[in-house]
Amino acid sequence: MATLPESTAKSENKVTPPQPRFPLPLILQQQQQQQQQQQQLASSASSSSSSAPPISPSPNSNAKSNSPQLSTPPGPPVFTSPLRPAAVPFRTSPASPQPVAVAFPSSISTATPPHSSSSSVTLPPSSPPSFSSHHSSFDVASLSSLESIAPLVLFSAHKVLKVRKQANVASLGFGAIVSSGKDIAQGPQLIQRDPHRCQSCGAYPNPYCNVLPLSGQWQCVVCRNLNGSDGEYVATSKEELRNFPELSSLVVDYVQTGNRLSGFVPVSDSRTSAPIILVIDECLDEAHLQHLQGSLHAFVDSLPPTTRIGIVSYGRTVSVYDFSEESTASADVLPGDKSPSEENLRALIYGTGIYLSPMHASLAVAHTIFSSLRPFKENIPEIARDRCLSTAVEVALAIIQGPSADLSRGVVKRPGGKSRIIVCAAGPNTFGPGAVPHSFTHPNYPYLEKSAKKWMEHLGREAHRQHTVVDILCAGTCPVRVPVLQPLSRTSGGVLILHDDFGEVFGVNLQRASSRAAGSHGLLEIRVPEDILVTQVVGPGEEAHSDSHENFKNDASVSVQMLSVEETQSFSIFMETKRDIKSEHVFFQFAMHYSNVYVADITRVITVRLPTVDSVSAYLSSVQDDVAAVLIAKRTLLRAKSASEAFNMRSTLDERVKDIALKFGSQVPKSKLYKFPKELSSLPEHMFHLRRGPLLGSIVGHEDERSVLRNLFLDASFDLSLRMVSPRCLMHREGGTFEELPAYDLAMQSDTAVVLDHGTDIFIWLGAELSVQEVNCAAALAACRTLAEELSESRKGPLKHEARFPQLRTLTAEQRAKLKSSFIHFDDPSCCEWMRSLKLVPPEPS
Predict the structure, then answer these.
(1) Bridge-partner residues for 732, per DSSP?
(2) CA–CA gap between residue 346 and residue 332 (Å, rounded)
(3) Pairing state of beta strands 317-322 and 330-335?
């Protein structure tokens, strides 16, 4: 809410200020009207009854949401694009923002832009959402609370310190987490026209802009430049301006359905026109092959009848299966020791074989092909078997592109949706282009690994250019050399995931990978106040070239090219203050441009206003512990590229926690101990779980697993990242309900069932006493499994938080002693013991 300067409230002999050049923004105008009404009511009440109490303004809410941040030394932004796997398991619902249909009316009125009145409803892929012209009333309260944009943008604090030295404490820092594919409860307002832009800096109009209704001019909140609106904002009254969504909503989506590229596909065919090619490892032992065959059979049975599918297998050679043979499994074989020649590809593409076929015509053939796969017979270790994975992906790309490659001269036909290559791998790429030796002892292994990474990145970029996503699903106990394979999946916008085997979990992820909706051609623009500097961006993207977006003469925004747009990913933005801030508010604007699954071009604009404060205590009260913890963890994991570096980061984390206590806490009287600030009560516990969990601790054994977890975490959405840092413990209660408890071993009581949600993995623990009770145990296990499925699907949970263990208060002294004696002693310190070892006093629970 806007507050007047103190000087205007203290002096009684006021000097009437000159009229401002621009009228106040709509939000401030409405706030002034409310204040005037309250003053009139107060004056009338005081005149009629002298005993009536004065009306006092309601205090600002300091309720915390999930947001943390960290800053780095001043300098140009550093773009970090870690290799990106997706959340486990995949989401089956369309990626947010909700898919937008392309079948709009040809003529769209710009006088009263239509919006969606039911955009929170997820429609099936074959039924794109429709839009109505209904416009909901403007909610002033939602603009001041940040709750309306919470899933999309999370700040580490809801206030900004004015003093540069206080604001730039690197141990805590300041920043934001932007989830490009997240959805919000009511859905954004939809605008079916081109957006207005500031002609100086490129920013967008928003509810905080000053607007001149008589001329239609609006003033940019970022650079204060005055811009025209081509007469669109000309209005007879200020109330009329509220009909424009961009002037009444903090989040708007501009929708452009004109497809400028050839190969445009209608809405009804857009999802099914993009093919799926399975690339299958032939070098499997019999046990693994049987599991893989079962998963593949179930996979093709789950596909829609109109989905086009192709099947390629690889070992020393590449086999491309032909669907024209109905009764037998027939394949054309290409050499795998080098990239396919143009002659071989021409013979394949222009031959008589059918290598992409809709499921309704090829389901029986696909089952025959899967059943014909045979286990690896030679007596060669799994790691040493020849696998030409890279060549197989090149062949799959050529099949997807088809004859259009000869007609385009480098211009790729754009299908209705993203094509997808799903690689089922059981070992590393050891043969052909991008191959690495199977042994680390090879004298040239470092050089060959570096060359292989470059090749895989090149192949991934070529796939991205052809609008094809490469997902790599690995399984088994053989190392797959994750650092070599991940550039292929990341640069194409795909994922890499490890599985224990090719069984049930692999099959589920295989099905979800095929139906996972993702936007493409993404670009994120970050605009911050001139007093604030973006120092680093971490997420699934890379620095955007200047020719990839529109440029403005005074545009100081930071632009990031997004490799894909999905709800399981986010960008972490770290900021610093360049100088002391003089204004009472600062403005941030985030613009995301992308094409959704219906080939509609979307521009999502989010505008945030944060108040500035001088008081450190007020700032700490606005800090969002959960978001701050996630940002600190991402900054830390970014430097933990190897197991040894991850171990060293634990000491760095200790120093960070100590520095926060020294800078923002207080010293205990007559002691060398420092008390951690009570406003950040949950932050130390998050750091405790981070340093001993799978991201920095020694729980994860193999380097492949640690690498996948690290890169998944760096790109993951806020919800998933928080769970990977600090697990969520849910205890089963009578009636199938669950109670959330701290993630301590005290929750593992012998007569209870506990679910531990660690983001990528969910564990179920059953106590010994409960296990012998057959009926109760079965009911508890069923309830826990149902909860685990819901958590893995939604990554959300509307369960009430309990800060401590209230049931301990009901135990007698004898019961407490019995409970304590049942625990096994571990060398690992508790959270409180860890903080005391740092000479810190743990904060009281909030």
Answers:
(1) 738
(2) 13
(3) antiparallel
Closest CA to 723 of 88, 146, 84, 69: 88
The answer to whether the CB of 444 falls within 8 A of the CB of 391 is: no
Select from 275, 277, 292, 294 the least CA-distant residue to 425: 292
Can you tell me the distance from the alpha carbon of 537 to that of 557, in angstroms, rounded to the nearest whole number? Answer: 13
User: Which residues are registered as beta bridge partners of 605?
Assistant: 252, 591
- Judge contact between 423 and 389, C-beta under 8 A: yes
On whether the CB atoms of residues 164 and 577 are closer than 8 A, the answer is yes
599, 270 Cβ separation under 8 angstroms = yes
Alpha-carbon distances of 695 from 84, 136, 319, 639, 701, rounded to whole Å: 15, 45, 39, 12, 11
**Of 348, 501, 311, 297, the residue nearest 423 (C-alpha):** 311
Type of residue at 506: F
Nearest to 254 by CA among 593, 609, 597, 596: 593
Span 416-471, pLDDT tens digits: 457 899 999 999 999 999 999 988 888 998 999 999 999 999 999 999 888 899 99
**2 with 61: CB under 8 angstroms?**
no
- Crossing angle, helix 703-715 and helix 643-664, to 10 degrees? 40
Rounded to the nearest angstrom, the gap between the alpha carbon of residue 339 and the centroid of all alpha carbons in its chain is 35
Beta strands in 157-293 (DSSP E): 160-161, 174-178, 189-191, 210-212, 217-219, 226-227, 251-256, 276-281
pLDDT tens, 758-772?
888 888 988 888 888
Which tokens is 678 given? Answer: 């009570």
Strand 174-178 relative to strand 153-155: parallel, antiparallel, unpaired? Answer: antiparallel
As to burial, measured by CB atoms within 10 angstroms (0-12 exposed, 13-18 middle, 19+ buried), residue 539 is buried
Residue 220, number of CB atoms within 10 A of its CB? 25
Cα-trace Rg, the chain: 29
Alpha helices by DSSP H, listed for 350-404, are 359-372, 389-401
What does the chain come to in residues? Answer: 846
What does the CA dihedral 82, 83, 86, 87 come to, rounded to 10 degrees? -50
CB-CB contact of 394 with 336 (8 Å): no
Closest CA to 549 of 523, 519, 520, 588: 523
- State the Cα–Cα distance between residues 309 and 280, nearest whole angstrom: 13
- DSSP 8-state symbol, 157: B
**End-to-end CA separation in angstroms for the chain:** 26
Q: How far apart are CA 311 and CA 318, in angstroms?
A: 11
Amino acid, res. 536 = Q
State the average pLDDT for the chain. 77
Confidence of residue 562 (pLDDT cuts 50, 70, 90): confident
Q: How far apart are CA 804 and CA 148, in angstroms?
A: 30
